[in-house]
Amino acid sequence: MDLIDLRILDVIDIVLVAMLLYYIYKLVKGTAAINIFIGIVMIYLVWKLTQFLAMEMLSSVLGEFIGVGMFALIVVFQQEIRKFLLLIGSTNFGRRRSFLRQLKFIRDRPEDSLTDVASVIDACIKMGKTFTGALIVIKRNTSLDFVKTSGDTQDILIKTPILESIFYKNSPLHDGAMIIEDNRVVATRVILPVTNDRDIPLRFGLRHRAAVGITEKTDALALVLSEETGKLSYIKNGKFVMYETFEELIIKIKKDLV
Ligand SMILES: Nc1ncnc2c1ncn2[C@@H]1O[C@H](COP(=O)(O)OP(=O)(O)OP(=O)(O)O)[C@@H](O)[C@H]1O
């Protein structure tokens, strides 16, 4: 019986380690950190090999290095560790959230719990036609309180004309970002963290960099309207999401909000 238990635990152990390595790889893939990650994996494998071959001295040197290296790793991978914890947190919360939403849906008026994505996109289409710049952040699981404090607190039910009037060029609220939680505008004139990503084309300025920045640091979704081109960009997880039509975009956002 003990033997069977051990085997099952071993399998679970291996699956968990494989999942952990996969998630870490997914996070560092395409970043400069991938080379550091590969380097660490190689040192670890050599260390294990020296232990297996009983090469005492080399194994103890590498062992010491890996021991101290743990602290260095936390510093080097600060951003990635943050993202990783966020990923784990939001995976669980995601399910709980949709369950809570169901409950909320029963309790509250529906207009208060689900983001009216169609109205948001409708406002964006209209603003795009008049080359009005806009930056809209939609909260998912991660709290946005740390950025909200930089702007003005609001509590406004989402309606197309209201969103348009907020970003209207002469409006006192048009500057910075607007934050949406559920179906309400909860903050305006918010200053967002700007990304350091050098791969973003130069034609994108600070508004787009801020949208990439907040979606890198949190799981929020961002919509950016360019004042220069009137083009609407949808940004998720620090990346521009491609879409063909506005209908397709609405479906994508709704899916991302479930
Ligand atoms: N860190 C930030 N947080 C929130 N809003 C910002 C931030 N940086 C810039 N903005 C907003 O973006 C506006 C325009 O900035 P900028 O012209 O650099 O952006 P852009 O990406 O080139 O956009 P556009 O294509 O509309 O010109 C600013 O006036 C401000 O309202």
The arrangement of helices and strands along the chain is HHHHHHEHEHEEHEEEH
Give the beta-strand count.
7
CATH superfamily of the largest domain: DNA integrity scanning protein, DisA, N-terminal domain
CATH architecture of the largest domain: 3-Layer(aba) Sandwich
Please tell me what the overall shape is: elongated
Mean pLDDT: 84
> Which structural class should the secondary elements be placed in?
alpha+beta
Please write the CATH class name of the largest domain: Alpha Beta
Number of DSSP helices?
10
End-to-end span in angstroms? 43 Å
For this structure, the CATH topology of the largest domain is YojJ-like (1
Bound molecules: adenosine-5'-triphosphate
Assembly context of the chains: single chain
- Helicity level: 55-70%
